[in-house]
Design a protein that fits this description.
The chain is of the alpha/beta class and 336 residues long. Helix content is 32%, strand content 23%. It binds acetyl coenzyme *A. Acetyl coenzyme *A binds next to helix 2, helix 6 and helix 8.
Length: 336
């Protein structure tokens, strides 16, 4: 039996209200606006309110995506939440979201692939629809990174922000939707970006708290080099699998980690910067939420149009990478 075509039929996002600018950070650590803008492109980020957790933001984004798709929560067969900052180790954040939105017929699980998580989730969720097992899948990337940042470490705390983005996947006309993909991992680089304590290897204790091991630990330069190498090649592989070339790309939606990484990926792909979606100046790196937030903003601002070839590409902790090539279908080409 032929695989079904799967596309994004609804998209939505949410960022917390509280904005933290580079100037605000100057009061916390020894940094300055000029350094942050020049080295990263980030000007501001959103920070979750006290008591606001990953599932709360995920629910807001999911409800917007469901409305956008015109799909009721009861129609969802599967909820996938990509996150490195779940509300708790268990139950999964996906189960919390499933209950809150009323997706009572849906299976639910979390997926951990760092900042590549949303694209990993998109490709994973698509398989269930392609095979005919499920009809509608909700994929969410949601993060409350502010809770795992060391606000005394200028190397990391200036880079990240909180937020969530969600997409409803469904069957679309043949020739539209997901055309090609690439997923990858290199566990050898796991040490470069990690949250050392609080798991089974180093359980939480007074000493882990004293040693600040519950905060993000990152070798920025090494991650930077990896990102420069992998973003272009992952996107090219996905394009090749889609039977397309770099000149076919209408819109590039890269993971929003660092403007220099984005510029280098665009250069490698020979995609002019006008075709690249960039919003990291406003939100910083929201990890698994960054691509769906950027995609939502690009679509709803009119930057992505029917029939456009849209390339998503991300990299992250693991190390991982993921890319998806979509012939944009939202609107006219949905089935069912
Ligand atoms: N403000 C001022 N100075 C700073 C700051 C800051 N916030 N942070 C670092 N510096 C200083 C350093 O201490 C260093 O000073 P020194 O030369 O006296 O030692 C100097 O600036 C240069 O530091 P570098 O680390 O070499 O700066 P670099 O140009 O590499 O930029 C950065 C650092 C922005 C972290 C970059 O390496 C980067 O973006 N890496 C990728 C990080 C990333 O994308 N992580 C997310 C991965 S995705 C996921 O799964 C979460």
């Amino acid at each position: 039996m032929k695989n079904k075509s799967v596309g994004i039929i609804g998209i939505g996002s949410y960022v917390p209200e509280h904005e933290m600018t580079n100037k605000d950070l100057e009061k916390l650590v020894n940094t300055n606006d000029e350094w942050i803008v020049e080295r990263t492109g980030i000007k501001s980020r959103r920070i979750a309110a006290d008591g606001e957790a990953t599932s709360d933001m995920a629910v807001f984004a999911a409800q917007k995506a469901l409305n956008d798709a015109g799909v009721a929560a009861e129609e969802i067969d599967l909820v996938i939440v990509a996150t490195a900052t779940p509300d708790m180790s268990f139950p999964s954040t996906a189960c919390l979201v499933q209950e809150r939105i009323g997706a009572k017929h849906a299976a639910a699980f979390d997926l951990t692939a760092g900042c590549s998580g949303f694209v990993y989730g998109f490709i994973t969720g698509s398989q269930f629809i392609q095979s005919g097992l499920y009809k509608k899948v909700l994929v969410i990337g949601a993060e409350t990174l502010s809770r795992i940042l060391d606000w005394t470490d200028r190397n990391t705390c200036v880079l990240f922000g909180d937020g969530a983005g969600a997409a409803v996947l469904g069957e679309v006309e043949e020739g539209y939707g997901l055309l090609g993909s690439e997923l990858g991992a290199d566990g050898h680089g796991g040490e470069l970006l990690k949250l050392p304590a609080g798991g089974s290897r180093i359980p939480a204790s007074h000493s882990t708290v004293d040693q600040r091991q519950h905060y993000v630990s990152m070798s920025g330069n090494e991650v930077f080099k990896f990102a420069i190498k992998i973003m272009g090649s992952a996107a090219l592989k996905a394009l090749e699998r889609a039977g397309l070339t770099r000149s076919d790309v209408d819109v590039l939606v890269p993971h929003q980690a660092n403007i220099r990484i984005i510029q280098s990926a665009a250069k490698r792909l020979k995609v002019p910067l006008e075709k690249v979606v960039i919003n990291l100046d406003k939100y910083g790196n929201t990890s698994a939420a960054s691509i769906p937030i950027a995609l939502d903003e690009a679509f709803h601002s009119g930057a992505i149009k029917q029939g456009n070839v849209v390339v998503l590409v991300g990299f992250g902790a693991g190390l991982t990478w993921a890319s998806a090539v979509i012939k944009w279908n939202k609107g006219d080409h949905t089935i069912g």
